[in-house]
Specification:
single chain, 34% helix, 13 helices, Rossmann fold, 2 domains, alpha/beta, seven-stranded mixed sheet, eight-stranded mixed sheet, 15 strands
Amino acid sequence: MRVGVVKEIKKDEYRVALTPAGALELIHRGHQVVVETGAGVGSSFADEAYVAVGATIAPCDEVWAASELVMKVKEPLPDEFGRIRSGQILFTYLHLAPAAELTNALVATGATCIAYETVETDDRRLPLLAPMSEVAGRLAPQMGAHSLEKPKGGRGILLPGLPGVAPAKVVVLGGGIVGYNAALIAVGMQADVWVLERSVDRMRELEMMLDGRITLEISNRQMVEEAIANADLVIGAVLVTGARAPRLITKDMLKGMKEGAVLVDVAIDQGGCFETSKPTTHSDPTYVVDGIVHYCVANMPGAVPITSTRGLTNVTLPYAELLADKGLDEALRASRPLARGVNVHAGKVTNAPVAESHGLVYTPLAELIDGAVS
């Protein structure tokens, strides 16, 4: 199969979908790999590194036109819509639930669009989302701490405090992968960390994993309001697979928060978990609403591309190999997790939460590809 790796054009996105080592694995299996000129530079992979393992370097138009399977990191932008063609496989993060224009554009292409974030195992793990959730979770306290500095518009408080000076209070909404990693780093920074989580079983796990160094509370509207009222930093870390993130903090709730407190919305890719959230970039990461600083960068792991690109390739490569080795139909029959990742196929929306978000007709994948059961 001809596998294409294109350069990301999203602002401040430096990751690439495949490392030279990953390209070598595909080439060793008999596949062709075509990489867009300069695609890996942001992750410190020169074109020569891909050529050295047998890949071909080509301009953007040629990569899109020649590839049966196109690997990306972020969702296609409008300039890329016209490059996607019927019968092509697009394998990338999509986050379609809050993106009507993108969803409709992908439906119109007739391509098969597989979203990393909805590839889901039978035990409900999200293997292709996990490493980037880990990165974003670990970055969140770091970015929040920076945003709390007075010159950045924040309260002017140091997360760990000092002997005789209380540490900052960090509230993490959600105890999944993002929430755990955010709490782990915030605890390491010696903050006073609270995690709000809906599952009592998960709270027991977090209690053990973090050695009792955090305060755990059940997540409900009243508890959220009480917790954020005294918070210096709030990290939104909630996820509903494939669906729009629930809005846990409304605009009215901001009035009860401390002036200069910071909200970090890690769920912004899925629409955000704060009513006042809107996507920002690494170049211009924050804005203020009612005295509360909002950090809502939509591609947080893009800030650390050397780490993120390697972590991403580690988990996506086995699925790319499966697609390349077996072809689309057989790969989807062979892998239920991969089949769950298909959001759009042949002009139909095959992910129920995405269809519901946009009022579109949901078509089960099994109706389109016999034997592909998700």
